[in-house]
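Troubleshooting: if your tokenizer reports a length mismatch, compare your output against this known-good record of 80 residues.
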Amino acid sequence: MASWRVEGGFPLCEPKFVARPGGTEEDDGVLLAPFMAAEGRSMVAVLDGGSLNELARCYTPETFPMGFHSTFLASAPRVK
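Known-good structure output:
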């Protein structure tokens, strides 16, 4: 079974699965795993849906509350 942890034990919010367009396997996509970083800023880790290898990590433009479920960030840039 695959697993992933944020170093330092920082709290995670509910991960969201995003399927790869045209994917054929159940885990073909990425998990977006929001968490609070050490300095109190919100971050999102992008994990491979099958292996849970970390593909990327970024800070968010706003600090989101724990319980990220369906949170709207008004100042977030649009992704094209």
